[in-house]
Design brief:
alpha+beta; 7 helices; 14% strand; 35% helix; 8 strands; globular; 4-stranded antiparallel sheet; two-stranded antiparallel ribbon
């Protein structure tokens, strides 16, 4: 984000609007998103037992459904996407999220840069299954919100997009661990 965009976000969060994203700004963003998440149905914790109880075993494709997103602006490599494969438990909330994102410019922009939901793989650098291996995470706008890019200084994921996910109980990685801002997951990590 540009310095002016950070100042605008800090003003929105009611913290010192100096254009420097530090611990006070991070805490305010997380507090705001947690408050939105609190009104959503509970999400599982991130330990493997809780995730398996909620979503089934990693890689078990019988827990997946094809979610119709045709006409909502979801694109992969510039080509329209008709369906996304996701866990049947998260499908209703993910559909509502995508529908809402399709109604405002920042949401439309990230939907046009869809990075994927289901991918049976371990977390980066480890052997523990990724949330993507259960179809309970989505990546959006990966080119400008990569794993190593610090949010919001070099990654540019819209906070408004994060709010939409939070209202449905999804965690925005960028706000909660300051990187990987493309990643949203249906957990109660924090």
């Amino acid at each position: 984000m540009l310095k002016q965009q950070i100042i605008e976000l800090q003003t929105y969060l009611k913290v010192d609007a100096d254009g420097f994203w530090g611990p006070q700004s991070t805490e305010a963003a997380q507090k705001h998103l947690r408050k939105l998440m609190a009104s959503a149905p509970p999400s599982p914790k991130t330990d493997q037992a809780s995730l398996t109880a909620a979503y089934g075993a990693a890689g078990d494709e019988s827990n997946l459904v094809n979610l119709n997103v045709e006409g909502l602006g979801v694109k992969y490599d510039g080509k329209s996407v008709k369906t996304v494969r996701c866990n049947k438990v998260v499908a209703p909330s993910l559909k509502l999220i995508i529908q809402e994102l399709a109604t405002f410019p920042e949401g439309v922009a990230v939907l046009a840069q869809y990075g994927g939901v289901y991918n049976n793989r371990p977390m980066r650098g480890g052997s523990t299954p990724s949330l993507h291996a259960r179809g309970a995470a989505i990546d959006l706008a990966p080119d400008t919100n990569a794993n190593k890019q610090h949010w919001p200084v070099s990654a540019n994921m819209s906070f408004k997009v994060m709010e939409v996910f939070a209202k449905h109980g999804w965690l925005a990685a960028g706000a909660f661990w300051s990187r990987d801002a493309m990643h949203f997951e249906k957990t109660s990590r924090n």
